Amino acid sequence: MVSTVLREFMKREPWFTVKLWEETLEQNVVFSGKIIRTRVDRVRLEDGRESRREIVEHPGGVSIAALTENNELLMVRQFRYAYGKVITELPAGKLEKGEDPFEAIRREQLEETGTTGENYIYLGDIYPTPGYCNEIIRLWACRIASYGSQKLDEGEFLEVDRVPLERAVEMVMNNEIEDSKTQIGILKTAQLVRAGKL
């Protein structure tokens, strides 16, 4: 049963009138680094009040679910300083300024795993932290076409593992993989394989 207060509120504020918009009044950059830029913005809310938004600007990234002929995923293990531990992830990397995302994923795949792919399928974009960061990660899946040697960047250290796709799904469902892009990439890739599309 809808309360009288709620009913009156719904009469005064019908849902279709909500603008869901904030107007930027002022932007103040507080840090500009090699990868990110941070700023504090002053905004006007839809009800006319003002507020502040702390924003991290990020150039975006790419990630690939690369499958062997035996339906094994190439996964990388690397130390992630922000979390203070080793994280298991799908191969991924940051976009360079003006870089085409598809070319970036092919570059990252070769650098981190030494492989090239074929039959690439675009899995979509994810917004990993929409509350304060504008990063967008573009996801792909592919079949591995050739194997070679890694071409890691200077100061980049990681191990490559082959994980059966169904085991990777279990790892996601058992909370053994914390990384969001990796969880999404694994689950979407598994669905494509089950549907016979990859």
What report would you give on this structure?
This protein is an alpha+beta fold and 198 residues long. It has 2 domains: 54 residues, no CATH class; 134 residues, Alpha-Beta Complex (Nucleoside Triphosphate Pyrophosphohydrolase). It has 4 helices and 10 strands. The strands form 3 sheets. The protein has a 4-stranded mixed beta sheet with strand order 7-4-9-8, sandwiched between helices. Strands 1-2-3 form a 3-stranded antiparallel beta sheet, with no helix packed on it. A hairpin with a 4-residue loop joins strand 1 and strand 2. Helix 3 packs across helix 4. The model has no long low-confidence stretch (mean pLDDT 92).
Tags for this entry?
198 residues, alpha+beta, Nucleoside Triphosphate Pyrophosphohydrolase, 2 domains, four-stranded mixed β-sheet, three-stranded antiparallel β-sheet, 4 helices, 40% strand, globular
Low-confidence stretches: none
Query: Major sheet: size, sense and barrel closure?
Result: 4 strands, mixed
CATH class of the largest domain: Alpha Beta
Please, what is the average pLDDT?
92
Tell me roughly what share of residues is in helical segments. 10-25%
Supply the CATH superfamily name of the largest domain.
Nucleoside Triphosphate Pyrophosphohydrolase
CATH-defined topology of the largest domain: Nucleoside Triphosphate Pyrophosphohydrolase
- In whole angstroms, the N-to-C terminal distance is 49 Å
Category by helix and strand content: alpha+beta
Task: Please state how the strands of the largest beta sheet are arranged side by side.
Answer: 7-4-9-8
Number of domains: 2
In total, the number of strands is 10
Global shape: globular
How many helix segments?
Answer: 4
Query: What CATH architecture label of the largest domain applies?
Result: Alpha-Beta Complex
Radius of gyration in whole Å, from Cα? Answer: 21 Å
